[in-house]
Amino acid sequence: MEEKKAESTNKNVKKANLLEHNSIKHILDESVSDIVKSCGYKEDVRLSNMKLILGTVIIVVALVAQFYNKNMTDYIYWMIVDKMFGFFDYGKYVVLNGVLQLILYTKEKNAILFTYPPEGSFTSTGLVVSSKLPRFSDEYTLTIDSADPKSISAGKSVHLTKSVTQWFTKDGVLVEGLFWKDVEALIKDYAKEGEPKKKK
């Protein structure tokens, strides 16, 4: 019986390679996403879906541009379609790929999670949760910001910067209780910033 408990707890343990910062960041980001969702925020996947659709269009354009067999009888039809829609050559592929990269650069940045506002909340904006773990550094920065910073109900951006050594054991196991407490405190700080001030 005790062996089964030990096995089940070992399955839930999140372990990272401490010599690889991408492994550490991945585990922390995954945990942050779970914590934010457990606080009542639902994930907003609209940007992800838009990127998938645009990526699919880019792949189709590239495949058509590469493998379409242009016979002389189809050549006139092909030119008409190409000029009307302007999609089926390599230049258009590069332009569409550039649009995708522009979306990633301007909208996503370091974001790991976009959310809707929690149900029953007075705010009309969700969260943008982003993180940074620079190369050759142990300082993990977690930022919670409003999904719509121009909104009246948008709270001020809050940050948490700590060394990852405070959340991992020597063996690379994430001490989830400590990390959970820090992230929940940051979410509460953001919620306090967004609350309307009472007049005296």
TrEMBL record:
It is found in: Endoplasmic reticulum membrane. The chain crosses the membrane at residues 52-69, 75-95. One of its GO terms (molecular function) is peptidase activity. The keyword Endoplasmic reticulum applies. Pfam families: SPC25. One of its GO terms (biological process) is signal peptide processing. Keywords: Endoplasmic reticulum, Membrane, Transmembrane, Transmembrane helix. It is a multi-pass membrane protein. InterPro entries: Spc2/SPCS2. One of its GO terms (cellular component) is signal peptidase complex. It comes from the Eukaryota. Its main location: endoplasmic reticulum. Belongs to the SPCS2 family. Component of the signal peptidase complex (SPC) which catalyzes the cleavage of N-terminal signal sequences from nascent proteins as they are translocated into the lumen of the endoplasmic reticulum. Enhances the enzymatic activity of SPC and facilitates the interactions between different components of the translocation site. This is Signal peptidase complex subunit 2. It comes from Brassica campestris (Field mustard).
